[in-house]
Amino acid sequence: MAIFVDKNTKVLVQGITGRDGGFHTQQMQEYGTQVVAGVTPGKGGQEVHGVPVFNSVAEAREATGANTSVIYVPAVFAADAILEAALAGMDLVVCISEGVPINDMLQVYDFLKDRPTRLIGPNCPGIITPGQAKVGIIPGNICTPGNVGLVSRSGTLTYEVVYALTLAGLGQSTCVGIGGDPVAGTSFLDCLQAFEADPDTKAVVMIGEIGGDEEERAAAYISEKMSKPAAAYIAGRAAPPGKRMGHAGAIISGGSGTAAAKIEALEAAGVAVAELPSSIPHLVQQMNVL
Amino acid sequence: MDIHEYQAKELFEKSGIPILRGEVACSAAEAASIAERVGRPVVVKAQVHAGGRGKAGGVKFCKTPEEARANAEKIIGMQIKGKTVRKVLVVEAADIASEAYVGITHNRAARKATFMVSAEGGIDIEEVAKNNPDAILKEIIEPALGVTRAQARRLAYHLYPNNPAIAKQAVSLLLNLGKVFFTHDCTLTEINPLIVTEQGELIALDAKVSLDDNGLARHPELEELRDLTAEDIGDAKAREAGLAFHKLEGEVGCIVNGAGLAMSTLDVIKHFGGSAANFLDIGGSSNPQKVRTAMEIILRDPNVRVILFNIFGGITRCDDVANGLVEVLNSTEVGVPVVIRLTGTNEEEAQEILKQANVITETSMDGVIQRAISLANS
After folding, report:
1. Angstroms from A65 CA to nearest CA on chain B
2. Nearest CB partner across the interface for B263, out of A102, A209, A248
3. pLDDT bucket at B357, cuts 50 / 70 / 90
4. What's B80's domain CATH number?
5. B213 and B277 co-located in one domain
6. Which residue range forms the structural domain that includes residue B108?
7. ipTM above 0.95?
8. Is A24 a catalytic residue?
9. Identity of the residue in A76, A137, A238 whose CB atom sits nearest the CB atom of B270
């Protein structure tokens, strides 16, 4: 089991001939992921690390049976790449590209909302089911198979926590980086619902940050519907208000979206909230469910 | 990116929104001569990237060129919310019969843009939202449709229920404001106040536009509107190098990859009793040059007593960061200790490179942060 990706996932790389696309194709292969196709318009017929390159997603899908796409194209072309993958019938699209204009994402989100394609990202590190498949850029060597489901708005902070779990002997069912942009394809809520339904997941770790109200919505779901225990960490306690902390999402304005408000909502929902990223493993151990 | 009122008005004018154009002055003498040319009362308005200009005394009605000179003298050089005013807009005064608010911004929860109007204009719209929310009418903009004529009509007749002539003008103004918002990749387009004059004309008396930084790549003409004088040198260097940087007040200079980890680094520094000198995210795909620029920016701050690297490689390769750091250390007298923690993609290569450098390495985030704080205090 696990969520969204597993050993049967067949990956197609959009932007495979670029520096990042090529490098991470190799990393995904080394992890054992089935990378079956690449797409770069105008470079059809070439090969990158033994992977055949096609001019379009539709063509690549027909030739290889790819069901999941990962996108490493420049930000202003990312929305088009997502739409192309969705129209070609991909089940899952993982958009790594950072800096996608928000108006593009409004259209993409609206287009996808009644379609079967799931989008993760943009501006995210992707997803990994340890021991089975990784789609994106999460370093494989810091993960280990197990029963903790992890979802995060951050990239590198995700690695920090995953690695701490691994070092503490707490393996992961699936780790999902949903991205820090204000409009993302997959929310905390979507992942929590999937983890709740996944028999391989026994506990959940959530890594949020200041801005928006996704953590508060997740807290409401945990409180009302979730049977599995959850721990959380919220980044941005020390952030000065009104500053844009890199992620388009991480802006606090007025009183909403502060770390304090999120922590309060999560604690009220019975979530164990960590003061430091390094204290997450201890909180998970205390749940006594693994 | 924020642009000034006079620049926003130019965008409005090109899209068919009626404005009073005015002229920009950088000195009191210029302001006086513009007022002279106008030949009737003017308003002198501070051009600065901050709200609440009127309350701060940055907007003044002037009956004569002499008054314009005196007020411009006061306003130029004034600080509004920490920003120095360097220029003013001098514009003919209007005979105001009524003031309304209209604006478009993104509604994060709905994942759609939202049009908002209120007949209570000219004042702080957030106050209206708090005290009299029913006075604001909202229309959610469907991404596939944009602002529809029917939506514009509903909003316009909410503002001017008893004045069809003005409401008709307002319909086309609101549709044009929608065009400005979407064609220029804005995150905010706002008119406050939108006035009706004694002569029965509808005019955007003010104009506020914020642009999506991520959209600028496809609008090179808008990049030219950036006010370089409004930016700190460190901020400008960071932006050019693709770094997210904010100066803070503490002593630990931070270089981190990823916004979440960078924010968390500030939190953990505070937790262990230290204080960060900055937020700096070197981003993904880092190259050695980015590391050099990051160190240069941080070392401009005399408060910095130690430089802390907290790098967890994913798309960022640890060896790139290590190469950049060694390059800087070999060519520059850094003057403060450097502590570094590198984990993840190409970690072994990075450790090998760092063996030749004079840096303190740690393996954990908590460890490197505690080390940095103790060095800053020693």
Report:
1. 27
2. A209
3. confident
4. 3.30.1490.20
5. no
6. 96-223
7. no
8. no
9. A238
